[in-house]
Each structure stands twice: as C-alpha cells, then as structure tokens.
Specification:
Layout: H1 7-25, E1 30-36, H2 40-56, E2 59-65, H3 71-83, E3 89-92, H4 102-106, H5 120-127, H6 136-147, E4 156-160, H7 167-176, E5 180-184, H8 191-195, E6 200-203, E7 221-224, E8 228-230, E9 233-235, H9 240-243, E10 249-250, H10 257-276
Helix pairs in contact: 1-10, 2-10, 6-7, 6-10
The structure holds guanine (GUN).
C-alpha cells in the first residue's frame, strides 16, 4: 500500500548512514546495556539492539543481572561503566523488576552516556532546547516524519500517551518544529474530540486497537508506537485495516516505529561518543 510508512526501509537508510560515518571517522563507539531480570520482551529488544550495533561497528557489552540482585550492586555497575573511558553509552533496559527505584538507577548514569535521554539534565535540556541526548523512540518518530516529508509547522498534532519515554519528550520535539500539540491520556475525557482534530496522530499507550476509524479525520497521518502481543502476532494501538483506508500516511506494526527506535539508538551512541571526544 502506498500510504504505509516503511520504518524498516527508513531505518536501513539511517543505519547505513551511521555505519558509513563510523567507518569514515575510524571510530569504535561502545554501548553497554544492563538488563535486570529476564523479561521476555526486553530480551527480544536487546537482541535487536545488539545486532544493529554490531552491524554498524558499535561495540556492544551486555550485563544481565538476576532480579534477586540488590539495587546497590546495579548502581555500582553503572558507576563502573561511567568511569570506563571505553564505554560511550549506557542503557538500562526498562521496565525494571518490582522494587527497584527506576529514578535512582537511571539518574546514576552519567548524562553524557545516557543514550536513552532519561536523566534529569537531558530531560531539562530538551525542554530548554539545549544540546542533549533525546529518547530514541521519539527521535525515531521525528525521523520518520522527516523522511516522509510531513510538515509540522502550524499543524494539529495529537499525542495519545504521556510516558516519560515517548509522549512527554515528543511534546518538546514537536513544539520545536512549531506544531500545535495536544496530549491525551488515561484520564482524558472524550479522547475522540482531540484525535478527530489531529492532522497528525501519534499513539503510544500499549492498548491494542484503541484508535478506531470514527476517531480520525480524512487524510490524517498516523504514527502507531504501540506494540501489543495478540496470540503470536504483534499489533499496534491503532486499528490498522480500517484507518489505513482513511489516512494519508500510516505506520504498520511491526515494521513502523520499532526499527526506527533501534536506528536512533545507534545515532545516540555516536552522538555520545562525539560529545565525549571533543
Ligand atoms: N523499554 C522499552 N523501550 C525502551 C527504551 O527505549 N529504552 C529502555 N531503556 N527501555 C525500554
């Protein structure tokens, strides 16, 4: 279908560009990933990240702690990685098992190595439009919109979902591009009033088929960030079959935003390397 935004192809283009840059600069950036516990989805995501890093020429270090480890030992490992000059990026895979203080763990990461852009300085600098590391999924969404020439200036953009990882950083990135942004969440009343007005609708809640065709206007651009398991299949937050008939552009799940997130992680690792080496 010609209105489908091919995140797989777009991510290949991005990854090729990054690999070329790494080769030309003769550098070997390094990413360290920490997983606590054995969440199956996290393991799949990490496998994808590892493959993409190694294909691009980024060294990948993986530490998997059991969920019985103490929070202090995780903190100690992060401090070790902070002090290791050969490590440029540190990523703690989320969600952490129950009982771990996510804020304390994430904010132990040196902000210049925080390739997820989740530490306080990176969050603050994003709001203030200073140079910083920005979360990979929102970056992937913005790259995809750019690659498909979707203009944002003055457009009504509705985000559904207010997570720290996706919805909140997207507000800032879209504002920087002069969009008019509304944000809906689980306590919003009549989400449809907002989604119906959207020229561009971005959905990131993790609720299968939440958005139906009656909730969008004709020619809308739809970005579906949701990844939900239904039996053996993966589906998004948007009813793809019915909305793809109405939308001017729409991302599929899988093969939409997911691959772009991984490509943007590579981009952030190279950016972190450059910040640390100038
Ligand atoms: N879990 C799901 N997405 C992400 C991500 O982008 N970063 C981290 N650290 N954990 C995740």
């Amino acid at each position: 279908m010609c209105n489908v935004m091919d995140g797989k192809e777009a991510s290949m283009i991005l990854k090729k560009r990054i690999k070329k840059k790494i080769n030309q600069d003769g550098i070997t950036p390094c990413l360290a990933v920490i997983l606590v516990g054995d969440n199956e989805a996290s393991k799949v995501y990490i496998r994808n990240k590892k493959k993409a890093c190694e294909d691009a020429g980024i060294k990948f270090i993986f530490t998997n702690f059991p969920d019985t480890i103490s929070e202090d030992l995780v903190i100690e490992e992060i401090k070790k990685l902070n002090n290791d000059k050969d490590v440029n990026g540190i990523l703690v895979q989320l969600p952490l098992p129950k009982g771990f203080d996510e804020g304390r763990i994430i904010n132990t990461i040196d902000p210049v190595k925080d390739v997820d852009g989740l530490t306080y300085p990176n969050v603050g600098n994003l709001v203030l439009e200073n140079e910083c590391l920005v979360p990979c999924t929102p970056l992937g969404v913005m790259e995809l919109l750019k690659m498909y020439n979707v203009s944002l200036k003055g457009k009504n953009v509705c985000i559904v979902g207010r997570s720290n990882l996706v919805g909140k950083p997207l507000i800032q990135l879209l504002l920087q591009r002069d969009a008019t942004v509304s944000i809906c969440h689980s306590k919003s009343i009549n989400i449809k009033d907002y989604t119906k007005m959207a020229d561009i609708l971005i959905v990131a809640v993790g609720h299968p088929n939440l958005i139906t065709k009656d909730m969008v206007k004709d020619k809308v651009v739809v970005i579906d960030v949701g990844i939900n398991k239904e039996g053996n299949a993966l589906i998004g937050d948007v009813c793809f079959d019915e909305i793809s008939k109405k939308a001017s552009l729409i991302t599929p799940v899988p093969g939409g935003v997911g691959p772009m997130t991984v490509a943007c992680l590579l981009k952030n690792v190279v950016k972190a390397y450059e910040i640390q080496n100038r």
